[in-house]
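Researcher: Please predict.
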Amino acid sequence: MPYAPANAHIHFALHPDHHPAVIATTTGPTADAARSHLHDLGWRSTGPTTMVLARIDCEEPHHTAQAAEQLRRYGFTTEIYPALQEEIDTEWTWANYPMSWCSRDEVREVSAEAQRIHDDIAEGRLTIHLHAHDGHTTVAVGSYKEGVRRHVHLHGEDHLRQETDLTFPTEAEAVAEFHRLYGVAVRPGPAPLTSREQAARQLLVGKPPSAAEETPAPAAEPPAAEPGEHEAFLAAPSTKRPSPPTNPSPFEPSSTTKHATAPTSPGRSPSTTAPSASASGTPP
């Protein structure tokens, strides 16, 4: 059965202040329907006609291509600007990725799981009780309050955060084991916002990082975010994907390696110097 007519245009472009975040601009009588589809795919509104995709794994171009393809199947008209198309057509790898045996697809699967955890915390499905630093990265203990109620330990930050093999029938047992494992390093609530999360918060409220107000020098120990704040915003990539951290960690990527792949959109090349041609259609 064919989809209902969709009379809207969606223009995708790299965010000017937040590479590689992506801005979608929607116009047309059925733009609300297009925005609803994008919201289901992780995009968030920043204005009456604009939405932003900002992930914790720097995979925004990849997921933008998937979103554009889905919208075209629904009959919407999409346009991907050349700089973004070049990013879509470019494969890259994390430098010093800790799971070096993973294929590119497997790395994306790990990132997708980290994104799910991130979203569960942001939307209140997963509550973080305590956090600590194990000498390499951030660890935490939390409880799922919806669906299958379970209590888990988390390991890692941003695109590397995963659930460990430890699951517990009660919150008390999960917390007690966390204290046993990390002792004096344990701190209440979620960990402080990462630099990506702080920048993303500014982006998602429509305030680019370049226009952010100057903040005072941090205290010796940064204050912890409130339980509802830590994951309220999607992680923010840096101006180059990704930039070296201020305090390097074996779990944080530094540089990338790129090589071109076949374009994902028929007839479109990453070397194009003008906006790519619109594509639309209604599936059979």
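Model: Residues 61 and 88 are 5 Å apart (CA to CA).
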